[in-house]
Amino acid sequence: MEHGRPDQLGRGPGEVVELPASVAPPVDVALEELEFVYAYIFARVGNRADAEDLTQQVALKAIPRLRSGSSHGAIRSYLFATARSALASFWSARFGLPEEELREDIWVATERPEPAGESVERVERILSQLPANYRKLLELRFLRGYSLKEVAAELGTTLGGIKVMQLRALRAAARVAVDG
Amino acid sequence: MGERDEQKAAERIDRIVSEVLAGRRLKAMPSDAADRDAIQVAARLAGVRDGYPRMTSAFRRRLGRMLEDGEAPRWLNRRAALAAGLGLAAGAVGGAAAGPVATRLEGLVAAVRPPATPPPVPTPSPEPTAAAVPSRGVIEPRAELARWTNTGIKFADMAEGVPRKVKAGAIGAFIVRRGDQVLAMSSLCTHLPCELVWQADRKLLNCPCHNLAYDVDGQSMREGYPLPALPFINVRVRTDGRVEVLGT
């Protein structure tokens, strides 16, 4: 390739097109913040239905704050703190345990919102510390959409065997997550 | 734990896992509490299967209406309303639709296994060179379509730290000089796919859709929840100083 081409709009390469930045109305600002809250929650509950429920809760609690004209930063902090609290209640209700008995330090609380890619990196770190067969099982099952039957075929074992192996792999991953 | 107990636990955990992976609610119960760490780790694993999750447009619209009205709407399900401490008519139910089944292979693998090494950047002359970069997403056009495209820009003409927008077929990029190196990155915001614009007075790349910003190296400047950095585009500098990017 020796020569450049103009793009489809006929502009020459290298041209910069300046567009004005928009000023979003308050509800749009809140929705943008809630998009991040949703991602934060989804990364922890792993399914859309629960993530939508919890995001709704967070949004409802935030309405008075939005109406009081709180600053953008204050709304963001409030939304994040509310999301943490909603997640703690979520797990507490499912396991029938008081929130303080859950591993908040590992699974719920962080000092600040984490960068969007951090959940992926965290999972990758956990998987990298597992034995190869556990890692492969979890990657196929959770990240590549294999059914348990397909995983069993891939790893050359029975369906019953792979279920037990999945349990052991998840327990091993939990140990890695908690310890490290 | 005996073998039978382990098999029972394995069945129970798999039921929970299967539901979550099918996009349905996580149905753990107090009897599962002994395996709560394993269940939470399963939720974490399921939570990254779609890369960066976003609200559906329908859910986003509903939330927007709720915020505008300032009250719990009829569609809000009872559990959410109770948890939020709101009174709600007894008959008001609704609920989220079942979620998607996640089997998108390529995106997932790419998200979980980003390239461990910087993109290949042929450097025919000892200087200038392409930028040495940390691990970060790289846009790789399909091999049969990939072609090096002359940007029409000479390295010697590039001002330090001033991105220039270029287009190489389907790939839009900003190229920026950093010392004796050139960096190329996607021109699309990583939040939603709006084309970024360079604002010289503020020295940042601005997204006109939601007023988000990236610095000249493509790192999100958003406080609180930073966005992913702009993915790299392959770039090279020819011996005559022409800058080329790998487009389509």
Describe this structure in words.
The complex is a heterodimer of chains A (180) and B (248). Chain A is an all-alpha fold and 180 residues long. Chain A has eight helices and no strands. Chain A has two domains: 26-108; 118-179, Winged helix-like DNA-binding domain superfamily/Winged helix DNA-binding domain (Arc Repressor Mutant, subunit A), CATH 1.10.10. Chain A has helices at 26-45, 48-67, 72-95, 104-108, 118-128, 132-143, 148-155, 159-179. In chain A, helix 2 packs across helix 3 (72-95) and helix 6 (132-143) packs across helix 8. Residues 1-25 and 105-109 of chain A have low confidence and may be disordered. With 248 residues, chain B is an alpha+beta fold. Chain B folds into two domains: 3-83, no CATH class; 114-247, Rieske [2Fe-2S] iron-sulphur domain (Rieske Iron-sulfur Protein, 3-layer Sandwich), CATH 2.102.10. Helix content of chain B is 23%, strand content 20%. Chain B has five helices and twelve strands. Chain B has helices at residues 3-21, 36-47, 57-69, 78-83, 105-112; strands spanning 129-130, 138-139, 147-154, 164-168, 171-178, 181-186, 197-199, 204-206, 213-214, 232-233, 235-237, 242-247. In chain B, the strands form four sheets. Chain B has a four-stranded mixed β-sheet with strand order 1-6-5-4, with no helix packed on it. A three-stranded antiparallel β-sheet of chain B has the order 3-12-11, with no helix packed on it. In chain B, helix 1 packs parallel to helix 2 (36-47). The model of chain B is unreliable at 73-134 (pLDDT under 50). Chains A and B meet through helix 1, helix 2, helix 3, helix 5 and helix 6 of A and helix 1, helix 2, helix 3, helix 4 and helix 5 of B.
